[in-house]
Request: fold
Amino acid sequence: MTCSYCGARNGDGEHRCRRCGRRPGDRLNGEAALHRTTGALAAKLQPVAVQSLAAQPAVVPNLAHAVQGSLFPDKPPANVIPFESLAPAAPRTTTRPRTASTTHGGTKHAARRAPRVPEGQGELDFLPVAPTKPRTLGTTVEAVIYCEAPVATPLHRAVAAALDWSMVLIAYGLFLLTFRLCGGDFVLNRSNLIVFSSVLPLIGFTYGIFWTIAGTETAGMRWTHLRLTTFDGFPPDGAQRLLRFAGSCLSLCTLLGMLWSLADEESLTWQDHISRTFPTPHELESRVFQRR
Reply:
């Protein structure tokens, strides 16, 4: 017996199919009809015309309206109530107030309205800003120095100048020693006096211009822990150092610029006012002399 449902072969005395358990009278319906590959009910292969892949039109999916679904489930509403829901809604005004207009020269200009201030908001009384005033000294004279660095005392500056001139005198002594070793005679005549008297200021000028071009303080100022600074508290530049050197030469030639520091309110000399620089100690603890 051949099962008409699954196509299995059974014995002649069998009333049910050993494979599917169906009876011989059972038939296939439309819903359970399957294509069989083995047995008597297997469908025969039919030749189908296969088109080339190049001839088939390429189907491009439309991703313009692609929307990804939510990855997380909807959360229940929180128990926190926002403040906006408790605040009363502001009343809406349907009419706008008319602004007065003024006519000037044939043209109308809308009058500016003052900004509306909420009724519950008050005004704070702030103190007016104090005008900036220049720093004054013990007297009513305005100070020319704006920084807080103190000016070195005249005695402190005199010690630094003495050390610098000692270096100049040592160089002048070496010049005389070299002149003697080279066979020169110290004859006090007019030519020798002119040469010997002009070499000393020339050595001093060379000593001063050397430190000016180097852009640093002299050896005497370094040994006495002094440094140059501007009236604003910044390191001086090359132009200010050249002006200070020129002022120092003028003060040394007239001697009035050095004495000016004794009468000045801030103990500044001519070269200090010309270059707008002054010597000050590196630190307050390094001051050799202090003011009373």
